[in-house]
Amino acid sequence: MLDVVVFFFLLGVIARVVGSDLRLPEALYETLSIYLLLAIGLKGGIELSKQPMAALAPQVGAAILLSFTIPFLLYPVLRALRLAGPDSASLAAHYGSVSVVTFAVVTAALTRAGLPYESHAALWVAVMEAPGIVSGILLARLAKLQEVRWGALLHEVLFGKSVLLLLGGLIIGAIAGVEGTAPIKAVFIDPFKGVLALFLLELGLVAGGRLSEVRRFGLPVVAVGVLAPPLLAVLGAGVGVALGLSTGGVAVFATLAASASYIAAPTAMRLAVPEANAALSITAALGITFPFNIVVGIPLYIGLARWLTQ
């Protein structure tokens, strides 16, 4: 069964398709975006505070590099499919970042299958949120500017609102740890899923309102949404094997590589690359890739991990 928050996305799509006057105030959307980016960063930082970083450094480095590299692999393919530069960069960023809900589903599937995985796997999710977004912004700027002003570009990448919130939350969580963040847990941790549901309702409204534009790019979007995840899963599984992870760990790494973000990336790209078609990326990431991974992909990735590690 789909996670309950996904139904909020579908409600938003249906509301737009049937012509409902449902709207979320622009100020509320902005507030939800800031909250989610900070909360995701904080949760990742708290996980960081629990781990001996020196021992985990190779895994963290590989996860960051994988997330950062995926958009550069996808971008030329998307341009070859005749998607515009901003759309290609935004879509590539969604696949460079990761889906927290897909991570939750694969870990539940591994538990049911009796396959242990590394207890710090949530750390991989935390460090794979931002790099793909950063490279997506980088690709968008490179495509748009005839002469790259590297100083301004670096400033935007490091200090733009979305990346600053993600990295800021990550650093605060890592420094404060579980005990230090306890006083704000009731605000930033406990209500996370409820806020996420509201955010997905807005994403559903955005996606539903642009379905006619998506139909124009229908075949490329469907092709990317279905074919990219298994190919990226093979890449992720290969990295997991090279790191010496357990079978469950390889399956998680493969799934993270195959997943596409529909929380951090839509927020970040809407802020950083507003000219990109948000419905295109959200429909591919949440409307095609997410259900594909849940129903078909995760069993395949677990099977791949078993085959590679046995």
UniProtKB/TrEMBL annotation:
Q: Give the source's domain of life in one word.
A: Bacteria
Entry's InterPro entries?
Sbt_1
- Signal peptide boundaries: none
Which spans are transmembrane here?
29-46, 53-75, 95-115, 122-143, 163-182, 217-243, 250-273, 279-304
Keyword terms: Membrane, Transmembrane, Transmembrane helix
Q: Name one Pfam family in it.
A: Sbt_1
Task: Please report the name of this protein according to its UniProt entry.
Answer: Sodium-dependent bicarbonate transport family permease
